[in-house]
């Protein structure tokens, strides 16, 4: 059976998805749309997909079985609802949006439609991250320290808070999601953000350039996340989980995991392409009708978004926000 997939959005991330999907013999990239005509035609040349002049034209169940929605978070409109109502299975890139109420309504429509759904939290599919999750089952974490330090995205929309949500919502979301995946749900968040260095780079930018976020989780543990999108000489993507009788360190965006306790001191580095594993799971889920193969559903992505948006609200209102 051939799985016909359409793409809405044909940027770099979309084309990486296409590349991994074309490695699967059961997949056909059938159609593509992007407002950037040059990108759209380039993607079509690389995949053999038909080019359409609107997202609605791509969302035709006579042409596709599933769709990858890879537009920026501010440009989703009603794509998910339209696909769901037409019975088209969906993969949606992270973050899912910028308005939690809107995303909640979308999640309900997706759930009630019964379609297979997945979101772009690819790091869950790394064997190292799953090893950390398995190890932590039944163990009591009392402290989490996480960080994400890297440079700024060049796109003007990304540096506009109302369009991207900022670095925390758009990028640090991966660390937020890994924390949820390996150690449970958040209870509250208190965040402070700054906006100083980025103004020297781009006076029109409205996103924050650094953040210090504290949180508690439903289990009772506490933690913190520090982040910046203005670190051009040091990159770091770490989550450290402390127990009274163990230590777990997930580093390099999940690529490496270190586990230390009285019986072991091991370090494992993943050789997997998390995007390939994620997309393989989506294809298998659609072909088999098994949502349980997916490690990050639309509902899961919504919960991660809820924490990120609550952090922005906390900073704006200068108070702790309960989830």
From TrEMBL:
Annotated Pfam families: GFO_IDH_MocA, GFO_IDH_MocA_C3
Positions of the GFO/IDH/MocA-like oxidoreductase domain: 141-243
InterPro entries with a match to the protein in the record: Gfo/Idh/MocA-like_OxRdtase_N, Gfo/Idh/MocA_Oxidoreductase, GFO_IDH_MocA-like_dom, NAD(P)-bd_dom_sf
GO molecular function term, any single one: nucleotide binding
Every Gfo/Idh/MocA-like oxidoreductase N-terminal domain range: 3-118
Name under which the protein is recorded: Inositol 2-dehydrogenase
């Amino acid at each position: 059976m051939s799985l016909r997939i359409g793409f809405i959005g044909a940027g770099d991330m979309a084309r990486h998805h296409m590349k991994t999907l074309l490695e699967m013999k059961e997949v056909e990239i059938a159609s593509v749309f992007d407002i950037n005509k040059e990108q759209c035609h380039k993607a079509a040349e690389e995949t053999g997909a038909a080019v359409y002049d609107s997202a609605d034209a791509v969302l035709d169940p006579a042409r596709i079985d599933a769709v990858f929605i890879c537009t920026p978070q501010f440009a989703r409109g009603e794509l998910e609802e339209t696909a769901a109502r037409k019975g088209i299975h969906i993969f949606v890139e992270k973050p899912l949006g910028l308005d939690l109420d809107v995303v909640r309504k979308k999640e309900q429509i997706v759930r009630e439609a019964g379609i297979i759904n997945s979101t772009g939290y690819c790091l869950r599919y790394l064997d190292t991250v799953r090893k950390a999750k398995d190890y932590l089952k039944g163990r009591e974490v009392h402290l989490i320290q996480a960080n994400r330090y890297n440079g700024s995205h060049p796109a003007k929309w990304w540096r506009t808070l109302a369009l991207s949500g900022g670095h925390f919502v758009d990028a640090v979301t991966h660390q937020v999601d890994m924390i949820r995946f390996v150690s449970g749900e958040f209870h509250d968040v208190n965040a402070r953000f700054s906006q100083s260095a980025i103004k020297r780079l781009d006076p029109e930018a409205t996103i924050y350039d650094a953040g210090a976020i504290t949180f508690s989780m439903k289990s009772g543990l506490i933690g913190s996340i520090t982040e910046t999108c203005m670190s051009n000489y040091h990159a770091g993507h770490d989550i450290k989980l402390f127990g009274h009788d163990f230590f777990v360190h997930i580093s390099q965006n999940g690529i490496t995991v270190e586990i230390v306790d009285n019986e072991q001191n091991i370090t494992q580095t993943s050789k997997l392409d998390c995007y390939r594993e994620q997309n393989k799971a989506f294809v298998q889920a659609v072909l088999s009708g098994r949502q349980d193969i997916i490690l990050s559903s639309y509902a899961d992505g919504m919960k991660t978004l809820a924490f990120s948006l609550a952090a922005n609200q906390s900073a704006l209102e200068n108070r702790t926000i309960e989830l």
